[in-house]
Amino acid sequence: MKLVLAEKPSVAQSLAKVLGANKRCDGYLEGNGYVVSWCVGHLVELSQPEAYNETYAKWRLEDLPILPTAWMYQVSASTKKQFGILKDLMKREDVKSLVCATDAGREGELIFRLVYHQADCRKPFERLWISSMEDQAIRDGFAHLEPSTQYDALYEAALCRERADWIVGMNATRLFSCLYHQTLNVGRVMTPTLAMVVMRDAEIAAFVPKPFYTVQLGMDGITATSRRFEAKEDAQEVLAKCKESMKAMVKSMDRKEKTEHAPLLYDLTSLQRDANRILGFTAQQTLNYTQALYEKKLVTYPRTDSRYLTEDMKPMLPALITQVAEKIGADAADWKADNGTELSVDGMCDSRKVSDHHAIIPTGTMCAADLAALPSGEKAILQLIAVRLLCAAAPNHRYAEDMIVLVCGGEEFTKKVRTVLYSGWKNIWQHFYPSKEKEQKPCGGPILYPNAMVSFSQAEIKEGKTTAPKHFTEDTLLSSMEIAGAEDIPEDAERKGLGTPATRAGIIEKLGQKGFMERKGDKKTHYLVSTDKGNALITVMPEQIQSASMTADWEQKLLRMERGDYEAEDFMKEITEMISGLVQNYDTVKGTDKVNLFGEQREGGPGRTLMTDHKRVGACPCCQADVLEKQKGWFCSNQECRFVLWKDNAFFKSLGKRLSPSMVEKLLADGRIRLKDCKSRKSGRSYNATLLLTTEKNGRANFNLEFENSRGSMKGERSR
Q1: Fewer CB within 10 Å, N- or C-terminus of the chain?
Q2: What is the tens place of the pLDDT at every residue in 496-552?
Q3: Taking the CB of residue 592, how many other CB atoms lie within 10 A of it?
């Protein structure tokens, strides 16, 4: 009997169906010599600092840096049941070996291995490595299971990534939070990403538009433009000279035929960029939709950084392209070259440029699926992937560019004319995603040739202004993350930039959730701008933490580790030395005002900060610090205190009530509140009662009910 461990229940079900494990049990499926179960994401996670030493429960500068020598792991409370099921399955006597069937990548490997080690399993296991959830791909994968030892280096890299993030994040967050009396979340990839947004916003804020002037000459079908003049007087002088004759000499006419090659297939980052630019989706939404399509067997594995297919896929591509085109309603004529010859798929395939997974493409299953039944977001992403496949296989786009240079009044005037020679792949793209740009047509004016004199009918000055850099969109931020620090990494490096294709979306989302960055703009185009909190964080952050080049270098070393040519010990040593040096040598930024940086600071020292964008509703019944209203509840401002009243409160729901700001203010002031018309869960009858608020030593809130016209009381459920 083999135990197959997938990452999600949906994936496990797909695997079980192909393997014939059809018997449903609690937390797994069984049959035909297989037991198939799942992890539900990260079942096992790194322990918090207080697990190493109780004193770490409080955030203190003197305890830093926290550098575990023997790493500890824990099973999260929400996944404890499933972990127990997996542990029992691993101990079953009839289970002789395991199959790691988590997502085929760094994180998937880590998820499986941590569960395997936490359960103290010693049984042999093999690795399933597939790029498609189609039935045949699953069969082929199980027919060619790979030795677990082949992925030991991948596991080492994943482990180092996780531990490095813990060391940097835990220590830097505590360091800066204690120094500046405000919770400041710091991340190895998150902070450099934020720094790029902050710097771009600073450029925009500091930008001062400068006027410029051009002279334009107009004739039938042509408007030629001069160079830019900073002074209007210079432009007026040229205009006066031109008006004297109203004629210009043709200095030159150059024609260049150019080619726009068919675009490459999508990797995850390029898909996220196009989905943001064309559809308005966030990077996380795109990843979620694509993952859902993958699990429905409609596209191949999404978390890839390759834009090519392997050589062995060539034979199946023509049929797949034809079927996809028919499915989405594309014209077959667009896939042939202008001379009528059949297209070639050679440019799409290069095994040397495929590492873990090939590019994202539709599957054969997609061609037979009912696309109308898909959610709108998934359908939009699927069409984008399908259209990109057709474009990648289509002929190149060809055009001619004519550069006309005129001379008048001693000044040169230029005009570019672009003429499409053959639409090629752009014809397909424009059919599905029409461009707002008007395509230029051939010049319809006078016949021009070198040294000819031509008359113009109009001469005028046009005023313009220089424009500031644009705010980041998710499209442009993903692009910047992808190339960040590239100048410091060898040209032949396989992966550059901040994070990986699989993690970049999560980084952007986390920056928003932590309040360092926000989305602005209309429904389709959202701009990413830093908040005051984000600006303040980067202001106090040392260069080594916000440096994109350093973090990109780390990502490159992790990749080398995956290939087995860089030692994990060397990597972790570099991380620990860096964070130790930071803790020992960092001093607060001179000349900064903590009040202006992070909000109004009240008396009480570290951890007792009143944020200006959160309303105070009262004093904490546990530590007397301010209680602030935030999005999900009312929280104590003292980071060492756990007191919170959740807005989505299960206890109040059971009474048929919802906690309101006025009720919270009353509870904090008096410790009690009278409730009318509460609903009994058993009888459905209404009753009145007085609710009492008490707290435990750690700040946890408890509720008790005192009933009117009753001698006793009933203890309520905890609020958290």
Answers
A1: N
A2: 678 888 889 999 999 998 889 999 887 667 899 999 889 988 988 888 888 887 777
A3: 14
Q: How many residues does the chain have?
A: 720
225 alpha carbon, distance to own chain's centre: 43
- Sequence ranges of the domains in the chain: 2-144, 161-205+471-585, 211-258+402-420+444-465, 268-395, 614-718
Helix (H, G, I), strand (E, B) or coil at 556: helix
CATH superfamily assigned to domain 161-205+471-585: Topoisomerase I, domain 2 (1.10.460.10)
Q: Which residues form the catalytic set?
A: 301
Kindly state the tokens that stand for 285.
């939404």
The token duo for 683 is 């009888």
What is the DSSP secondary-structure string of 218-281? EETTEEEE---BSSHHHHHHHHHHHHHH-EEEEEEEEEEEEEEPPPPPB-HHHHHHHIIIII--
CB atoms within 10 A of CB 490: 9
Q: Tens digits of per-residue pLDDT, 544-574?
A: 888 887 777 888 888 889 888 899 999 999 9
Q: What is the pTM of this model?
A: 0.73
- Cβ-contact 125, 64 below 8 angstroms: no
Fold of domain 2-144: Rossmann fold (3.40.50)
Output the CATH code of domain 268-395: 1.10.290.10
CATH 2.70.20.10 correct for 211-258+402-420+444-465 = yes
pLDDT tens digits, one per residue of 355-373: 778 999 999 999 989 999 9
Residue 491: both structure tokens together: 């040209």
The residue written with tokens 């500068």 in the block is 61
| Helix 152-180 × helix 106-118 angle, to 10° | 90
List the Cα angle 259/260/264 in 5-degree steps.
140
668-711: pLDDT as tens digits: 888 888 888 888 777 778 888 888 888 877 677 888 888 765 44
Between the alpha carbon of residue 392 and those of residues 261, 308, 428, 537, the distances in Å are 9, 10, 10, 43
Give the DSSP per-residue string, 16-68.
Answer: HHHHT--EEETTEEEETTEEEEE--S-SEEEPPGGGT-GGGGS--GGG-----
* Separation of alpha carbons 380 and 374, rounded Å: 9
256 φ/ψ sector (left φ>0, alpha ψ -120 to 50, else beta): beta
